[in-house]
């Protein structure tokens, strides 16, 4: 473990696609206001406006309107543009509750959820042939400690009707989730997934968001589920607790599918999240998605190789206590320590 962790630290210092340390960067008002800690990932500098003179590039967060505006400004000003997002092992708590991330991703090509064009993550997975051993060590630590992207929910078995049938988890997503369209999915993708599930000889569980259960937001599968025999699972329990009791996971673009792969659970994808198209998932892509991916994701990759790229080669980890750069193994230790302190 120690040797692998040291190797990982070397890797995270070698990211030539990142902005140079000395470069002054601009960001939209939304980014500067909502992520005041972000400058610590860029030499502890204060981010400027995207309209400021003298900036060498622009950073944006996610894929919504402010990010599209930042991209337009960068193009107009002939500046480089880096796309930012939370890492796949983010924190104990939720971002909307104020939890600062232990990791972010910085991508000069696109968002990791965007299947319409190559991302830096996709290229790292393509080149991860030698990284399987590191990925195995990371996967084992994440599974052993029952971790996911967020880690605030309790570990307890969900209350689900007993059955002798194969149990399939259909992962619902909130309407408006940017990752759905970016992964080349749509409402029709969810409808097809639900129809296939209900037509199978299996018990179908639908994992939906608690806000959907409380009718605060709308999910893609909620209305359709009431017309069939699927069981809605909206309990606030950890991802690991749900995956403990299912035989397969079907998804459109959720990271839930990646969490399942890490635990050896078969995964079927109805769109193209970053972990699909490499031979580790059963891909039910439409003709448009197949055409968009033509000539890309051509290599077969193992779960461990994908894990190495997603958790080690791609993200940057920092300890929010002092903003020192750390590796994924130290990030695991910090999350586990926070969980124990909160117990």
What does the model show?
With 343 residues, this protein is α/β, with parallel strands linked by helices. It folds into two domains: 25-127 and 313-342, no CATH class; 155-298, Rossmann fold (3-Layer(aba) Sandwich), CATH 3.40.50. 35% of the residues lie in helices and 16% in strands. The protein contains 14 helices and 13 strands. The strands form two sheets. The protein has a seven-stranded mixed beta sheet. A six-stranded parallel beta sheet has the order 8-7-6-9-10-11, sandwiched between helices. Strand 9, helix 11 (256-262) and strand 10 (267-269) form a beta-alpha-beta unit. The longest helix has 15 residues, at 328-342. The radius of gyration is 20 Å and the shape is globular.
